[in-house]
Amino acid sequence: MFFKRKKSPNTHTLVFYNLENIFDTQDDPRTLDDDFTPEGVKKWTPKRYRRKLRKLANTLNKVGKLTSGKMPAFIGVAEVENRKVLSDLINTKPLNRYSMGIVHHDSPDERGIDTALLYDPECFQVIRSEAIPLMVFNEEGVRDYTRDILHVEGKLNGEQLHVFVNHWPSRRRGEEVTEQRRLTASETLSQYMQQIAENHPDPNFIVMGDFNDGPEAKSLQFLKNSLNLYNPMEKLASPERGSANYRRSWSLFDQILISPNFFNYEKGSHSFAHANIFDAHFLTEWKGRYRGNPFRTYVGKKYLGGFSDHFPVYVQFKLNK
């Protein structure tokens, strides 16, 4: 699945990774995080927490490095409890070598899990950030408090862009029952991005996340078509490969979409070069009936000690000089 490529100092990697419930070990009385404490049903101890941090840090250090020779420029993450967890992650070897920055806003999610952006300040500078609330409701008309969409405006090697980190409502109650919630998320984000485009002609957009829908779903198609985005993950979607596996069926809910601006080659701009799923062998179950699946931390209450139930996905841009 991986081919040896020549390393390029002008290649920059942008990553999204659902970290599968990375909580600290302290109980937060404001959220439903009781399971992830030493006394909780998952027996989430400091030792297990540190072990997961080491595994995630090692993974993030390797994504795209085969071709770029360096750390990702920035990394969107989902299912992270708070800023402390993010700080612990970037201060874990080998990430602690890079002085990475954090963009994070607490969301109203009932379990207390958020999206965030980690970045290398040597190539990415943050201008501003904000949380875009999702107003979604269940079948009874009661608001479903879910993750906000994180918007970060910044400059990648001097080129201004807008990054959106998403974790759309889940399919826990069934795909059809919950479809409208993801359509609402898509419409909310589309409207927000269109407002930016009205005030700043020809903006550079990067939309990443766990959308809980595949590239072919109505929600992703609406978002893509309403803003003329390009989704390189459409070409990666396959019954034999994906970013997550549920009941022996692959899905590609983790995606990165980009605006068509990234297909020009003007000096000082970035052009799209490559996209992939980072499904390296060390991230997978290596034997048994689930061989090849993401090596996850838990299955229900059972602790496996793996990385995440998702693989990271990434795109690579070339800086035109």
Describe the protein's architecture and organization.
The chain has 321 residues and is α+β, with helices and mostly antiparallel strands. The chain has a single domain (11-319), classed as Deoxyribonuclease I, Chain A, CATH 3.60.10.10. Helices cover 20% and strands 30% of the residues. The protein contains 5 helices and 17 strands. It has helices at 46-62, 65-68, 83-90, 175-199, 218-227; strands spanning 11-22, 74-80, 101-104, 114-119, 124-132, 136-137, 143-144, 149-156, 159-167, 205-210, 244-246, 249-251, 254-258, 270-277, 298-299, 302-303, 313-319. The chain has a 6-stranded mixed β-sheet with strand order 3-4-2-1-17-14. The protein has a 5-stranded mixed β-sheet with strand order 5-8-9-10-13, with helices on one face. Strand 15 (298-299) and strand 16 form a beta hairpin. The chain is globular. The two termini are 30 Å apart. The model has no long low-confidence stretch (mean pLDDT 94).
